[in-house]
Write a structure and sequence with these properties.
Elements: H1 10-28, H2 33-41, H3 60-73, H4 75-91, H5 100-113, E1 116-120, E2 138-142, E3 145-155, E4 161-170, E5 177-183, E6 189-192, E7 206-215, E8 220-224, H6 234-265, H7 279-307, H8 314-339, H9 341-344, H10 350-358, H11 367-378
């Protein structure tokens, strides 16, 4: 009887390939253009674009699998991909504020040419807008269109972006705030290479400066009075939290794999056997396995609810993101402690995994905000 062999998972194949050069990209901070081209060739850039537009038609569950797998190989590349999958996961939904023709055009561009998109929200003075405040980036009326001026920081994937979903305030007597889709082929857009971080060093999260950039009127996809942005959107929160959780879980799984190999291969002369033979390592590795198993269930559960059309309340998605990423940090820290000096040697990947996984605490929603919001709700405040 012939047994059907399933086709190889392109994300697994690419993760193994990306891992070979991830250390070099980390050391130099060089942006992984070749990785992004490979993602497009494999059809992964348009994974969450509807099939009618040439995309993969995938939901959040499959997107999380792919981001997590790519994250085991090169989390900086996975982060750039995650931001594009997130946007397409939202803009093609029924009820999206996007004009359908505009969303379709962006989706087709992703499928045909591998066009990347990301939301550009954070500013030098504002910080993350999720904590409140009006953006300094201004959209001024120019006939039927707009002119955008401002500076965005931490703009992940900036060297590869075809589109930026730019968070602005209007210059109207009663300002609105929201998103304008800015094509990166427009004039007067400059990328300033400021990104020099502890982790995710190859993510190209540079500053982007807009100097009176013309934007068509139809590209104002979601402008509202400031009060309209106070409550988080359950669908957006679910997609963002799931993909970020999957990414950092991928980093922890790469660290766990390296730890297991190290313990099997390391044979101290004083022991005369592999470190893997010692009971204390059994318990420690088993504790990491427990954390990663919990992570897998949390990520799958949140994705499944969302794909079924019932995303949980935003605070519950925040709980998942914080729990999964804290578990991932604990797992990588434990691996580091177990391996001693070998863990911190730059010749080995574990020190890079440690730096990368710590970035999870910076990504919104941050732990303090999740806990404080839950506490206020519980106290009736």
């Amino acid at each position: 009887m012939t047994v059907a062999v399933p086709p190889p998972d392109p994300a697994r194949t690419l993760a193994e390939r990306f891992a070979v050069h991830a250390g070099a990209h980390d050391r130099s901070g060089a942006f992984p253009h070749a990785n992004l081209a490979a993602l497009h060739e494999a059809g992964l850039v348009a994974l969450t674009v509807p099939r009618r537009l040439g995309g993969g038609g995938a939901g959040l569950g499959r997107a999380a699998e792919v981001v997590g797998r790519i994250g085991t190989g090169d989390p900086a590349t996975a982060l750039v991909l995650a931001m594009t999958l997130l946007q397409h996961g939202l803009i093609h939904q029924v009820g999206s504020p996007w004009p359908r023709a505009l969303a379709d055009a962006v989706g087709r561009d992703a499928a045909l040419s591998g066009a990347f998109i990301n939301a550009l929200r954070v500013e030098p003075e504002l910080g993350t807008p999720a904590r409140g405040g009006l953006p300094e980036t201004v959209a001024r009326r120019d006939g039927d269109g707009w002119r955008v001026t401002g500076r965005k920081i931490y703009s992940t994937g900036a060297p590869a972006l075809a589109y930026g979903l730019v968070f602005v305030r209007t210059d109207e007597p009663e300002p609105r705030i929201g998103n304008l889709l800015v094509p990166f082929g427009a004039p007067a857009i400059r990328i300033v290479e400021t990104w020099d971080h502890l982790g995710l060093r190859a993510s190209g999260s540079h500053d982007v400066i807009f100097e009176d950039v013309p934007v068509p009127g139809a590209n104002a996809v979601d402008l509202r009075p400031p009060a309209g942005w106070q409550a988080p959107d359950a669908l957006q929160q679910a997609w963002s939290c799931t993909l970020l959780a999957a990414l950092y879980d991928g980093v922890a799984r790469a660290a766990q794999d390296w730890l297991v190999r190290f313990l099997r291969e390391r044979r101290p002369g004083s022991l005369g056997a592999p470190l893997a033979s010692l009971p204390r390592f059994h318990e420690a590795v088993g504790e990491n396995e427990r954390l990663l198993a919990v992570n897998a269930r949390l990520v799958r559960g949140l994705a499944a609810e969302t794909d079924a059309g019932a995303p949980p309340a935003p605070r519950e998605a925040g709980f998942v993101k914080v729990t999964v990423t804290e578990n991932a940090i604990l797992a990588v820290q434990r691996a580091t402690e177990l391996c001693g000096n070998a863990a911190l040697a730059r010749a080995n990947p574990l020190e890079r995994h440690l730096r990368d996984v710590l970035c999870a605490r910076i990504h919104w929603p941050q732990g303090d905000a999740v806990r404080a919001a839950a506490g206020r709700a519980a106290l009736g405040l």
